[in-house]
Amino acid sequence: MSKVRKIIDEAKESKNPELDLVDKGISSFDEIPSLLTMLNLTRITLTHNRISVVTPALANLTNLEILNLFNNQIEELPTSLSSMPKLRILNLGMNKLSALPRGFGAFPVLEVLDLTYNNLNENSLPGNFFMIETLRALYLGDNDFENIPPEIGHLKNLQILVLRDNDLVQLPKEIGELARLRELHIQGNRLSVLPPELGNLDLTSNKSVIRMENNPWVAPIADQLQVGISHVVDYLRSETYKFVYGRHVSANAPAPPRLSERTKKSSKPKP
Amino acid sequence: MAKKSNFITLKPVESSSLYLRRMEEKTKQGVNTSDVDELEELMLNINSYDVRKTNENEPITKIPHSLNLVGFHDDRTNTDVNIAPKLPARNLKPNTNVSDMYKNTQCVRCDYGFEPHEKIVNTNGELWHPQCFVCAQCFRAFPEGIFYEFEGRKYCEHDFQMLFAPCCGRCGEFIIGRVIKAMNANWHPKCFLCEMCDKELADQGFIRHQNKALCHDCNARAKAASLGKHVCHKCHSMIDDRPLRFRGEVYHPYHFNCSSCGIELNADAREVKSRPGFTANEMNELYCLRCHDKMGIPICGACRRPIEERVVTALGKHFHVEHFVCAKCEKPFLGNRHYEKKGLAYCETHYHQLFGNLCFVCNQVIGGDVFTALNKAWCVHHFACSVCDTKMSQKTKFYEFDLKPTCKKCFDKFPAELRKRLKKAYEANPKKNSAAN
After folding, report:
1. In this predicted complex, what is the ipTM?
2. Do A187 and B425 touch (CB under 8 A)?
3. Contact A45 B389 (CB under 8 A)
4. Contact B389 A68 (CB under 8 A)
5. By the CB < 8 Å criterion, does A96 face chain B?
6. Which end of chain B is more exposed for a tag (fewer CB within 10 A), N or C?
7. Which residues of chain B are modeled with pLDDT < 70?
8. Which residue among B375, B388, B421 places its CB closest to the CB of A209?
9. What residues in B contact A47, CB-CB < 8 Å?
10. Three-state DSSP class for B323?
11. Sequence-separated (6 or more) residues with CB below 8 Å from residue A72
């Protein structure tokens, strides 16, 4: 631990506002108490540690803009994080989160939220989750969502939405309201159709990316996907597809089965 | 000096109130003159008052009369001067028998006769004691000898005006001379003006328009305005069709011809303003629409109307300064930097917002060199592993994870099952994931 203390002391001395504590075997904030006194910090990176509890006092670092807690053992978060006035980038990927605290959506200026590889689903999101209007990138890949709440349409500034490798059986039509979306990852889900409203988005320009492989698509979509993504988007915009979609929804077919592949996710609590 | 008395007393000229007042003024001015000079000047003064002209057109007659005050001493007499008021008094011939002449006469006011050697005032054949010859209102002598007569009575100027003179409807002062009776009031000729253009109306006549006195031109204009029409600035008649605007005025188009082809103009004619090198309204010319369009005046690429002021040339077109705007926010650039893309111009903010040159980390426009990868851009110093925030250079090899750069060290720490899945996905679609290493 003396190594960590040395790094912190050096950072204090040099007044470097960015602190890297990557892969230092830290398991608790109790080991690095002086960290909480470094009010000048703008970035803390604690990737590849063993932290399981995030101290609420972390929110006292009011100048913090980037907080990276990727690959830790976090199961629960303090509500206080949401009040951090300058926090723009929050990386909580590869942890053991199965729920987010109430009021989590209160971040005033959050732009990038990474929740990749956790155990979240639509029921673990607090009511105000989609009120973070400043959000421009939301990473929810490798989680357990079956549905995405229609409130996602509130995220008017969203440019990147990653829903890769979840259990999604459908997408809300409100995704078509995300006018600035230019990156959509929905590969590895249980989707068979897409809302025609997705055709409203400009997802075929050379500045846009849509990934949708590994889904049990209905035949016409699968056929178009063989030819290319732009053909899928064109097809979604056609009258033919509106009819196909309407018929598919009213048929109320049972959702496709779960994929077995992801059940071995390491973030899953051990049975 | 003696104060001004109410009545002229029987004293030699040197002690008459008029004389005394004159003396008073002179002393005030510090000028000393001899008695004789003063007397002469006094007489001159008295006789030089003009009989004011009577105007037959005027409803009220006010004739200021000249007063001939004649003083006589033992050896001096006076002839009747009532019809020759302009004659200087000193030219009057002395008459030694004058006392006999007035023996059987009497004062018009008090009916008493005159004593020999007594001063007599004679006006238009009427004789007065000097003390009887006073204003019918204030019983004082007439200042400067001027009086006004009305219905047989004589008034000093002040009382006459107070009692009978009309007041001007504009300035409120008494009117002496010509009186204009109009609009239920009296006016000085200089005070009766057109309510729109302030021209004097006394001689040119006026027209009552909505209880306002207007000159003929203004009346025509007011009438046209109330009908929602214009009055031609040239012929002053109403413009029934569309007017032609030229140098700030409106005209019948047919008063003008095209400066180029000479054809009679219609309302479509165009005024060409401020050519280069000339100030506005200096070189204004009118052209018919046909000639105007042929003149090579630039047409705005946005509003399709000719540009007569500053021209912005961009994107191979001309624009009004205020019409050259960002294709996204529609704010004019007004000389600020603009960015062109696919035939459209954008402001800095929207160009970067739309075409992706905002840094993924700081979300600011990238000033210097740009790192472009994975459908994103970074400031050079912000390009780092998305997992451990370790800075990466152009040469650093990285993995792609959800279109985020990930260094090999971090990727190797990913759970084996995730690496396996990512590898599988990459192999299934190698072309599209070409950014991955």
Report:
1. 0.94
2. yes
3. yes
4. yes
5. no
6. N
7. 1-103, 273-283, 356, 430-437
8. B375
9. 387-389, 410
10. helix
11. A46, A48, A49, A50, A51, A52, A94, A95
pLDDT at A127: 92
- Residue A271 resides in a domain: no
Q: Number of structural domains, chain A?
A: 1
- Chain A residues 97-126 with CB within 8 Å of chain B: 111, 114, 116-117
Please state, in angstroms and rounded to a whole number, the distance separating the CA atoms of residues B248 and B241: 18
Q: Within a domain: residue A153?
A: yes
Cβ neighbours for B52, distance < 8 A, ≥ 6 positions apart: B62, B63, B64, B177
Residue A48 forms part of a structural domain: yes
- The yes-or-no verdict on residue A176 having pLDDT over 80 is yes
- The Cα-based distances of A255 to A167, B54, B339 in angstroms read 10, 118, 49
User: 3-state class of B22 per DSSP?
Assistant: helix
CATH code of the domain containing A193: 3.80.10.10
CA of B365 to nearest chain A CA: how many angstroms apart?
15
Residue A66 at interface with chain B, using a CB cutoff of 8 Å:
yes
Rounded Cα gap, residues A150 and A137, in angstroms: 17
The alpha carbon of residue A224 is apart from the nearest alpha carbon of chain B, in Å, by 16
pTM score, whole prediction: 0.55
Q: pLDDT tens for residues A177-205?
A: 999 999 999 999 999 999 999 999 988 88
pLDDT value of position A259: 67
The answer to whether A264 faces chain B, any CB pair under 8 Å, is yes
For residues B134 and B122, give the distance between their C-alpha atoms in angstroms, rounded to a whole number: 13
pLDDT at position B148, please? Answer: 81
pLDDT, average across residues A15-22: 93
Q: How sure is the predictor about A99, in pLDDT bands with cuts at 50, 70 and 90?
A: very high
Q: Is residue A91 in a domain? A: yes
Return the pLDDT at B100: 56
The answer for A 6-65 residues in CB contact with B (under 8 A) is: 18, 20, 22-23, 43, 45, 47-48
Q: Which domain holds residue A197?
A: 2-266
From the list B355, B388, B428, which residue is nearest A207 (CB)?
B355
What token pair was written down for A205?
């320009």
Nearest chain B Cα distance for residue A116, angstroms: 9
**pLDDT tens-place string over residues A219-263:** 999 999 999 888 999 999 999 999 999 999 898 878 788 766 566
Rounded Cα distance between B273 and A177, Å, is 49
- The pLDDT value given to residue B219: 83
Q: Which residue in A has a C-alpha nearest to residue B419's C-alpha?
A: A265
On the question of pLDDT at A117 being above 80, the answer is yes
